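Dear colleagues,

As part of the handover before I leave the project, I'm documenting each prediction I ran so the next person doesn't have to rerun anything. This entry is a single chain, and its sequence is reproduced below.
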Amino acid sequence: MRKKEAKVLANIIESLKDIIQLLTPEQQIELKENISVQQFKKNEVLYQDGEVPQMFHCLISGKVKIYKDGIGGRTQIIRVVKPVEYFGYRAYFSNQNYVTSAAAFEASTVCYFPNELMEKWMMTNNQLALFFIRLLSVELGNSDQRTVNLTQKHIRGRLAESLIFLRDNYGLEEDGATLSIYLSREDLANMSNMTTSNAIRTLSAFAQEKIIAIDGKKIKIIDSESLEKINKIG
């Protein structure tokens, strides 16, 4: 292995320290021997609804959306993956094909290794199994809450929630106000369970109310308190 490749792999292994520390020395060796790394371009699909799950994924850098194509060609973004998070394994453990798809929001680096390997480790490593049980439990709780919010909140509340989610998960630029993730209006609408036209109108209303400022795909949060209030009252 070349020095550059070895360094990249070492950095990726370091990124996986939350599970590395739970693996036995033998399992750590197996991981290093079976791990793969792939670069994905913006909008490139990682896996598709209906495919048989083969690999256990971890996002190293970039941003990935988990989404579902619905009736009439509408897309619903189920959740957004950020570094360093694991994804694409639920279907395997439930003996199902994928029921969602995954695609890169931007240029992203993903590492993966065979699902069978993770299953083998979990059979003998209780701490590792408990780690992913807890992870799945958190994701299920978040999914339940999001389902309620997307069905019961009004349009303004749903969009406010999406903006707060992006702020809390991806942070702000150096100015302390601009979201560090730039989404198309369509993607923002798909996150908020609304049409693109409704997302554009609601963003414009927020801008007129001096809650946010818009510069192309850049969104600056000017009045966090008002945004939080809109999110809370729905």
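Residues 186 and 196 are 5 Å apart (CA to CA). The first helix runs from residue 3 to 15.

All the best with the project,
I.
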